[in-house]
Design brief:
This protein has 92 residues and is mostly beta strands. It has one domain (23-91). Helices cover 13% and strands 52% of the residues. The chain has one helix at 2-13; strands at 23-34, 37-47, 56-63, 68-75, 81-84, 87-91. A four-stranded antiparallel sheet has the order 1-2-6-5, with no helix packed on it. A hairpin with a 2-residue loop joins β5 and β6. The longest helix has 12 residues, at 2-13. The radius of gyration is 22 Å and the shape is elongated. The termini are far apart.
Length: 92
Amino acid sequence: MKNVLLLVFLCLSFSMRSNASHMMGGQITVSHVYGMNYKVIYTAYRDVSGVSISPIATLTFVNAATSTTFTVDIQYDPNVIVLVPGVEEYRY
């Protein structure tokens, strides 16, 4: 029991402050236009006190039947929406 308490005490005494900064979330919306054409919208939500957002998003598409892949780089719409103070919405 003494060893466990000593281990807990040592772990707490060497603890350091840590912070995390990351994207708050995102979503991908796909709608069929016609034939093999689709409209894809990638929406990212960012906490302004967190990391900066990349102006380009890379999307990779995979055809499950043929294992064919292709990649598309898209830029976000410059009209950034502020949802609530401190939260921005970016649409690609």
